[in-house]
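Dear colleagues,

As part of the handover before I leave the project, I'm documenting each prediction I ran so the next person doesn't have to rerun anything. This entry is a single chain, and its sequence is reproduced below.
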Amino acid sequence: MNDAAIEVSGLLKSYKSQPAVNGLSFTVPRGSICGFLGRNGAGKTTTIKSILGMLKPDGGTVRVLGMDALDPDGSVLIRQQTGFVCEIKEFYPYMNVGETIDFTRAFYPTWDRTLEKDFLDRFSLSPKQKVGKLSKGMRTQLAILLAVARNTDVLIMDEPTDGLDPFLVEETLRLLVGHAARRGTTIFFSSHQLDEVEQIADRVIIIDRGKVKIDGSLDDLRSNYRRVRMVFQQGTPAEMAALVGAASQTTGRTVSVLARDNVEHLVDRARWHQATDIEVQAVGLKEIFLEVVKQ
């Protein structure tokens, strides 16, 4: 069995000669929870639509559970076998919650009524509530319920906690992680809430201007990146300026740089140049993300 739930290779898509994704390549392992990050306009939505077979790219290949997303029959199978929560949660406003669930259930033979009832109870959604009168957060909860109850091997979600208050965010994230752990479901989700990504993801993909900048496990990112602050008596030596590069921040005699892999070398050279103070600090996903997209 292929260990990849999602495989994207050399993905290309332009709008009016402006690249949205430019040779994008990554793999999402089965059973992982993968955060898909990038600034607005980085190419996230284009990528997600290509994965679901909702958009025809200009080049490259996309496979989900071994199925070709660019093949018309394959793209239909992918949508049947994938739970999806889009950024804009729209439903038929004249239906109530129960009718919306019944309508959706008819399209998915793998539908799990136990999951349906469980998420209805946990989200405190009443089947008799009119969808058109639901709050933004309740529409988000309904969208998650409809995706999870399909009982698929892959969940793809775009801003899955949009509109939820802090308590419901925590509860929803806990439910999703528990669901993935019990059933081995792969979750691939896009979010601007980096603290939420750091809370549940085990892998992270960061894209910028249609290209992958970072692709790896969250634990490896935390282990490899460090903030190094160095203070020099007479200003930054030329060698140190070259080592830290343009990504560093200099304030007076203090140089601060987000370093990856070469932390020990930086510290050794700073000591050789008689730095009066050296501080190495762990960093979180937010700091890594901001540094990557800034560069």
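The two ends are 38 Å apart (CA to CA). The chain has two domains: 4-209, 225-294.

All the best with the project,
I.
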